[in-house]
Amino acid sequence: MALLISGILLTALAWIVAWGTSGFLSEHTFFPLWLGYILAVNGLSEVRFKSSLLGIMGRSFLLLFLISIPLWWFFEGMNAIVQNWHYRLAQPVSSTQYVLEASLDFSTVVPAVLSTGFLLLAAARDFRVPWPRWRPRVSERGLAAAVLIGIGCFALLPLFPDESFPLVWIAPILILEPIASAIGFPSLLTDVQTNGWRRVFAVMTATLVTGFWWEMWNVYSLPKWTYTIPYVGFWHVFEMPLLGYLGYPFFGIAVFSYAAIMLMLLTKQNLLVLLPQAEK
Is the dihedral of CA 205, 37, 187, 191 positive or negative? Predict the structure, then answer.
């Protein structure tokens, strides 16, 4: 209960400061806001389901913050090509300050998504959902073809940025998932074969949930981001065009695939062993 209360209080305080004031404090609310969210989600999971991703991982949960930083810098690099989102700062800052502060903020992405995914898996265990029976066929040739297609998608981005921008969220999946499956690392593609779609949908839905809070808290904050998305830049929900939210579920799979590979490399922890504990 203490974890839940502390998370809610931290989030509420950071939210008030972000929207209700200006100056130094309001310019540095992103990290405490999302740290509070992460604590609150894990606290809610502990209170309601007697388990949480933070509780299971212990100190190694901190690794999720560290591995999150290069993941989002990668997407920042992709955005340098497609120019879909743009940051508005309260005042000019040096390159060093920007990198340090942005990295701290980026560190919250992976723990927020995975903690939410754990909570949704725990909540779903009480409901019988008619999951699709179809399973994708996995073969060595198919895995190799997916990786080549993923690489080809990245090659298209600088050539046709306005037309190929959705590939920013799809191409990483086409590379990470087949590689993880081929080398025996945790893979949603492999998990679907034996356990069905519930974990895939939990990860995808978790990113939509976090996406809602990202966009909602962003709307009256400064610094903030805005969007320029070709062809679908209408019907805004907060700053994001409605159709832009379709990218979030694919981003969720990329987050899982990347985090699963990094945890296996760094700690030998299997994310497909950790997350399913929510279902027990």
Answer: negative
Note the pTM of the prediction, 2 decimals: 0.95
Residue 64 — very low, low, confident or very high, per pLDDT cuts 50/70/90? Answer: very high
Domain ranges of the chain: 2-279
> How far from 86 is each of 113, 161, 164, 185, CA to CA, in Å?
22, 15, 18, 35
The pLDDT tens digits for 237-275 are 999 999 999 999 999 999 999 999 999 999 999 999 998
